[in-house]
Design goal:
Radius of gyration: 28 Å
Strand content: 5-15%
Helix content: 25-40%
Structural class: alpha+beta
Oligomer: single chain
Distance between the termini: 23 Å
Shape: elongated
Number of strands: 18
Amino acid sequence: AGFSLLGPRLEFQGPGALAHSLVKASVVQKCDAAYPSPKTHPQAPSVHSIRPTRHRRRREHVDAAAERSAINAAAERGCMSDFPIRSRKGGANPYISSDANMPETKPPREPGAAYVFVPTLAACALLLLYVGVGVVTGVSTDYGVSSVRGSSANVLRVATWNVAAINNNPFEYWITHDDKAYNKLMSDVQEFVSNPGERDVIVEEVFSDQMWDSLSKKMKDVGWAGVDEVDKMWKDDFRSRKIVGGFLTDATLGKKRLASMPDRVTNTIRTENGNVMRPTVINCFSGDLGTQEKWFKEWMEFMFETRVKDQMVYETLLPIKRSKYPALSEDEERLSIPLQTLCGAIFDAILVHMMNSIAPTTWQPLRSELCAALNSQKDSRTLEILERTYGDADVLFVQEAASAFVKTASASLGSKYHILAPASMDPKRDQNSLVFLCKKRFPSTASEFTDEVLSSLSKAPVANGDLYAATVFDSSNRPFVVASFHGDTNGLATIPVTDALLEKIPENHKLLFGLDANTYENEREGYQGAAKYQAFIVDKGLGSQHGVDSSMDVKRYTTFNARTYLQPQLNKAVAFDERYTNINVDRNPKDFILYTPRDFELVDTGRDNTGERTYTEDMMFPTLKFPSDHGVTAATLRLLPRRRV
């Protein structure tokens, strides 16, 4: 690596770049009008300009307008543009590193700048040769200035995005919102749970004996065993517990998953005909929950009279295993179906009572507003960002997508992209990893080998739909492996899956791998550290958007969220004032784009938590405009020429 002073510009050159520096210097010097100089780097020598003539200023204005029109037309055509790539802040494409507050890489010409055109036959011939072989100049990554030129056939735009926000609960995360009513509501909920005082009444006052009698009768009618034993638990224990201290904040109940498990399964059930929602505060149920009686009537009809996916809702409940949740007793495991149904009903009843106590006239309208932005329009907003902001990408990696999203994406983006999903996609768990391949760039059919990768894993916590891996050829008949992966919450499966994938990659294939690695800034027992994962992939001969060094900036976060007090796992709740310090705040560098450095060179990279290719560091998300709890991670990669042996 080294530095080369080319005309008025000081540019960093990566390994091998000095070989063409003399040619490049000649071309830049003699054809500066074809590629005008950007603003100089602060350390570069200053350049004295010559005021252009009126005629030349007019001609340059027309030329610039024509260039902008051509680039915009290319952007409209979609991925794999035929035009040279220009990194320009605010433009439609390509990727830029706006989150690094870098100087613009190709700013508009300024008044008074001098552009001297000295055409010679030799210089123009050299320029054609220079572009034809795909030589690209500039610095890659967010940490410096990047200026990308060259044929788009030698450049790949890639992005990865975990599109999910968990459980369809609009209140689950603290969000950035200017509405005073929303902020007051969430503050009052936090106060109710943290300092309930006299409001900490017994469970029977919000979920009555009559309600339990109706529920237990339905349980028996559908043939559940052990209802009488659960009735004894109700009378001897649950009915007299305090709603906050004895239930919502009971850590043991949280460890047993007796309220969170039924919520996970029944909160929002996706079907081909739309979403079916449990009557509860923590989803987008559209009915009236203004009283306990109205809520209970709707709740019973949902659980015992509603059919989804060829079964009744109560039949979707899953046994809770003591092997996974050891806090359960043997009896609780055996009775887990009726017991979790009781606890789920109590949990919903408490939330309805709490919301109608602190904000009886405002909480339901506020929820409707949040649902419109974060839930009911979530898929359309997600696809809008993918199409409008990242529609020039050659490869898009998506994680935690619902099976219904695959159909929606195919209808919206199917003309431009192959939408690839795993054969083992899980429509019930609905957390699937996908790959979108630009049809112009990858016209051939991909060949999936996900099962081959998973077959070599033993105890790694990987579920159906978490991984997609396939081989595919691009339009130049070059072989690729593309893979998308969603790691477990602690990131413990990330290294085993990466290892297993590397073992199955066919010879001479170029790797592109987008993943939610679920890695953490601070490594601790039972959690995968981001720095350790970066060192691992470099040791395996890979690079990431952090580069090809074993070290990385662990503060380049791709998540920043914290759970509120309106969700079933209150052991993970964070007070608003502790959103920067609490260990339960998820502010971590979780998302990666991996590639093989022998095949690619990183040109630039960026993060996005706005949907506009910008990243606001201290903003929690999701927001009303950005529907996911993960930011988009994007990179531009330059294909390297194949080395001759």
